[in-house]
Amino acid sequence: MIEKLIETIKVRHHFSAENEGLLRDRMGETVDFAAGDLIVSEGRRITYSSLLIDGLACRSKDTRQGSRQIMEFHIPGDFVDLHSYPLESLDHDISAITPCRIVKLHHADIDELIERDIRFARIFWFFTMVDASVHREWLVNLGARSGIARVAHLFCELLYRVRVVGLAEGTGFAFPVSQVELGEALGFTPVHTNRLLRELRDRDLATFRAKTVHIHDLAALEELAEFEPGYLYLGRRAG
Amino acid sequence: MIEKLIETIKVRHHFSAENEGLLRDRMGETVDFAAGDLIVSEGRRITYSSLLIDGLACRSKDTRQGSRQIMEFHIPGDFVDLHSYPLESLDHDISAITPCRIVKLHHADIDELIERDIRFARIFWFFTMVDASVHREWLVNLGARSGIARVAHLFCELLYRVRVVGLAEGTGFAFPVSQVELGEALGFTPVHTNRLLRELRDRDLATFRAKTVHIHDLAALEELAEFEPGYLYLGRRAG
DNA sequence: CGCCTCATTGACCTAGTTCAATTTGGGTGG
DNA sequence: CCACCCAAATTGAACTAGGTCAATGAGGCG
Description:
alpha+beta, 9 helices, 44% helix
């Protein structure tokens, strides 16, 4: 059930079988959410973190004008709100885009894990720092890249992340968002998002159809996006 | 010397005199940088974190087209690269905008502090999570707010942060950036940044002149920016 | 004084928005 | 199986925020 999480740990850290066992034992209840549900809502005090094991979720903030900014997409294997452990409450919403299943990890259990082996603190802190790194890359995306490059960059990022947890099929992957939601992540209107997708298709770089991304020319797409995967910290490292 | 850091801890956590002493004892060498210097450069392996005690610094990434995206400004009292402690290397540059003075806190000493009192881990992790929260708010800024609101939002954020460390003078504060740099943070060209500043001035909301921001009508500016300071996590809380 | 960098302004251009209409495709009831 | 429905995708045309290019102005400093 938490296989995908284990994968995301192991690409980055040495992780003993013993600690893997400890972690498995601490995982709590499973909860299901329907598409559109709030998994965590802004400002609420939180006593557990949610590991996404199935579905697509996102972090977002609403603006007063009724628009919404999506700040990160979450795929199975991601803790969607691990930062609630140090922060205790969140500054934004986490919502289910498709039906989602999460497993709880209570903050008290995180405390225990860290007490048992301080390396757990490193691992969890590291995860939250990867999210921050992704945020920074998205800032570059929104602030400094052209429309077409923004879409390309997002597709590249998702491909790399999805591969780690075994959800890629070659250079294609499921990405069950509407064009409205895609626009909310990229800072564009749905109309313009649609035109950018058409341009990607016309240039034979990537196709987004039926909630699925197919990348036709990954090298060219990365070139267009100036994609450098380093910010995802996917390399195996000492830990 | 680290008074401002202590302030930023104390607005958020209970912090004992004993721990304050421990922290003071661990602070390392002081280093000075000239305006424009890189304090930390992308990809470098890092063994200490830098506490900014004087000057203005920023986190940024360069794009291949030669433009630059600024992702956060740092004022005295901020650790500019505390995330290098869990990450060990950084995905972006940290540079001195004005002459800067930093004090080193070696990662080995952070280890020791945490070993002495686990609450240090919470405090440091918390700091890095506030940076992430700021990143998310900036994502909303770049992705979903109008030009004028973006500038307004940045000015509001800086006022609130600068107040904590005693660097505000009423509703004014020093902000020694050029309009080019301001544009690099907001995702605008210098020309357009200039026009937005003129509009803020014309509407009697705020003035940016001689490297100083003067806010004339804070309530109206916050309203325009949809500024909600919660994301800065400045309220005093249990820790 | 004379640079030199930065701020300011104008005129024109383009990426992205807005509004509105049309098409597509999956699901559902008969 | 088909007719219908509804949400989402697609396209067009007109509009606007922001970019580009280029010239001018203003302050700081050797």
